[in-house]
Write a structure and sequence with these properties.
alpha+beta; Protein Transport Mog1p, Chain A; 7-stranded antiparallel beta sheet; 15 strands; elongated
């Protein structure tokens, strides 16, 4: 992998760690407070200032406090915790009906519920605290935090760390996905390095044209594969399905899996990058080969097919025996290619991505 791509994945990984750390930051301070007792006075919870009625289905009492800057906070009490949670779900439906008022989802923490939402002009927070439903809205996150810090509203009382995770759950999940994806790519690159084959010791690397000719010299009617220039790679080695003799043998053997090895000859590094592909073979008048479109994970660790059949070999004299016995192993293609490459003083490097084997000439 080139240095720019290494730096890119390093930046993605570090960015993911930073986002995860931010997602686990301390939540709104009010949520770390103890739950509001059922007997608390709504005026005391909301603080001083004019209050308006804020009715909710099934509630015992509900009040909303409006401030001059457009912020507001409300408190609604119910007879049971379950009713408070149901009311929070109802509030979420109300928000979804507003345009535009996206919500980040509904989360339950123990017996408490928690919901954040925002628009371009408003930041909102709604949560249950025992039998209470609290709602707070302000023009931006900073104003909302200040509004909550100066209030007496109860909290979830479920632990700071847990609340922080749930607060930014919508952010943490994709971050963890990105980190997992980067980790998978890193692991696959490590596997690719493990499967690379070093050039033979004491052998000086030959020129690109010389190596090209040696690889093309692998073409032999006695071999079940062919090597030829390719459109999407310098060379392509695959089962010899062009030769009628060989494809007839493949058909009798019941070969169903196609295989090809795409090669790119990088003279600057004295390295042959190899991307492996598998496909399917359907037999009719001749072989019909289909390869799945793929750009990632081009390493085939092993693949072998073998078929044998017994029957009547001749009538005069009658003879019963083995009609055919074929074994097709991808190493029959890859093995000779690796021998040629390493014997020429070049490194054989499995490639994970199809774009790594584009023609180099």
């Amino acid at each position: 992998m080139t240095r720019p791509r290494k730096n890119f994945w390093l930046a993605v990984f570090l960015g993911g760690l930073w986002l995860a750390a931010w997602g686990c930051a301390v939540p709104y301070p009010v949520l770390e407070r103890p739950q509001a007792p059922p007997e608390a006075e709504v005026e005391e919870l909301l603080g001083g200032g004019p209050l308006e009625a804020f009715p909710f289905p099934g509630s015992q009492i509900g009040r909303m406090q409006l401030n001059r800057d457009g912020s507001r906070k409300g408190a609604v009490r119910f007879a049971a915790v379950g009713q408070a949670l149901d009311s929070l779900r109802l509030w979420q439906k109300v928000l979804r009906a507003r345009k535009p008022a996206p919500t980040t989802g509904f989360t339950t923490v123990g017996s408490s519920g928690y919901l954040t939402y925002h628009t371009d002009a408003m930041e909102g927070l709604a949560w249950t605290s025992g039998m209470w439903l609290f709602i707070a809205e302000a023009r931006d996150p900073g104003s909302l935090s200040h509004l909550l810090e100066t209030s007496n509203l109860g909290g979830l009382a479920s632990g700071e760390a847990t609340l922080a995770v749930f607060k930014y759950l919508w952010l943490i999940i994709p971050v963890l996905f990105i980190i997992g994806l980067v980790g998978t790519f890193a692991l696959m690159n490590l596997v690719a390095r493990w499967w690379a084959v070093k050039p033979r010791e004491g052998v000086a690397p030959v020129g690109r044209q010389e190596l090209l000719e040696r690889l093309l010299a692998l073409n032999d009617p006695a071999r079940p594969f062919s090597v030829a220039p390719g459109e999407k790679a310098d060379l392509v080695a695959q089962w010899n399905l062009v030769d009628a003799t060989w494809w007839e043998a493949f058909q009798k053997a019941g070969l169903r899996k196609a295989y090809r090895l795409r090669l790119a000859l990088d003279e600057g590094r004295h390295e042959v990058r190899a991307f492996e592909e598998t496909g399917s073979i359907e037999w009719g008048v001749g072989p019909q080969v289909r390869y799945a479109r793929s750009w990632f994970a081009g390493i085939v660790l092993f693949h072998k097919e073998r078929a044998a059949a017994y029957g009547l070999k001749s009538l005069a004299p009658p003879e019963v025996g083995k009609i055919y016995d074929y074994s097709f192993d991808v190493d029959e293609i890859k093995g000779p290619v690796i021998d040629i490459v390493t014997g020429a003083g070049w490194r054989f490097a499995p490639a994970l991505y199809s774009w790594q084997v584009k023609p180099t000439a």
